[in-house]
Amino acid sequence: MNMPTKVPTKVTKTRRHLTWLVALLSLLLPLAAAAQQQGLEIDIVGGNAAALPIAVVPMPYQGSSTAPPTDVSEVITADLNRSGQFRGLPLAQIIEKPTRGAEVNYPTWRALNQDYLLVGRVLDAGAGSYRVEYELFDVAKQERLLGFALTARANAMRDVAHQIADAVYEKILGVRGAFFTRIAYVTATGTGKGAQYALMVADSDGFNPQTVVRSPEPLLSPSWSPDGNRLAYVSFEGGSSSIYIQNIGSGARELIAKFRGINGAPAFSPDGRRLALTLSRSGNPEIYVMDLGSRALTQLTNHFSIDTEPTWSADGSIIYFTSDRGGKPQIYQVAAGGGSATRVTFQGSYNASASVSADGKKIATAQGAGNNYRIAMMDSTLGSARWSTLSPGSLDESPSFAPNGAMIIYAAREGRRGVLYAVSADARVRQRLVLADGDVREPAWGPYRLPR
């Protein structure tokens, strides 16, 4: 099976039944809209009644120079609300505005039924930088849980806010927050020969979008390196598929694979030294692992079926992949060093595009039933595998876990419009992220970032 330089119309008609092959043939997809500087539009479409009430008091600027452009408390509140685990007190109901612990009147916050209280202020730090000092309190216990300060320049104040939200999330829930992370996705403008594609990177909340790659040919399957500095992706420049690795900071890129036939679905190993990929150099799509230092290839599968969409376990010992060797696409696993493949998913007639949580206990898939494809999750946290459906759409695909496993980003169709959703792993909260004009596809949630 070779990758065609142009995708015939009949392939488009079978897209609903071959979603798992998108990683190889995503020329089919109406990929999407141009990057907009205002970022992704956020629309929360669900809620969690059990969310913890928290008051994030406005953090005023108390310096003498120009105030920073970012409202830190607003970003923190939005982050916590989007997680589904917290319910921020509306600004109109915040009747007192302390900026430090000594100013906190606990009876006020108990009367407002708040479990937690976050206060702070923004100060000058010199040389055009700002210092954000914040404190987190348990209202019932009248106890300070956190008290720290972060310093950044004006253009990094959103990063500071995300890091504070991460700290609050972890202190209260005992799970590392994933707000100070990034997402990658693919967009396109125009149609036919006038189409232009872009590989984009944005903050986890959709702000600060940056164009990493532009091309008149389709781009697809972005995959993050574990250090968050590089993206592997597929490009169709020249009319056939090739795999590149792009350095996000420098803009330098490196051609990794341009073999005869299919070069698709790259996935970095957890140590960043290897790349799992799908190649049809032997005539059939198989799973390979490439050592990025030596470029040596190890073939992991050898089957007459289509094997594609590899993804690594967190310890790098196992590779999960999609295969139709049992008749319809299902998730299989194979040792990263080679060996026999075993089937992983048994519920549902169709499972593809696996994403594995960092603890290895959850696997999200695009699960098909009839003409409907929804995001489902197999959870083995309590031992036996339990399945839950996370999305309500009819053509949902490309799930990707946040690094803390608490949320999943995925692609969906709404009419002719391609959108992204982030859904909590318990399915209680969904968040729609769409570009202002057109479609967006192929989301990938990046790793944790080092604090600035």
From TrEMBL:
SUPFAM superfamilies: TolB, N-terminal domain (SSF52964), Tricorn protease N-terminal domain (SSF69304). InterPro entries: 6-blade_b-propeller_TolB-like, Tol-Pal_TolB, TolB_N, WD40. Keywords: Cell cycle, Cell division, Periplasm, Signal. Residues 40-145 form the TolB N-terminal domain. It holds the Pfam family PD40. Residues 1-35 form the signal peptide. It is found in: Periplasm. Part of the Tol-Pal system, which plays a role in outer membrane invagination during cell division and is important for maintaining outer membrane integrity. Belongs to the TolB family. The Tol-Pal system is composed of five core proteins: the inner membrane proteins TolA, TolQ and TolR, the periplasmic protein TolB and the outer membrane protein Pal. They form a network linking the inner and outer membranes and the peptidoglycan layer. This is Tol-Pal system protein TolB. The gene is tolB.
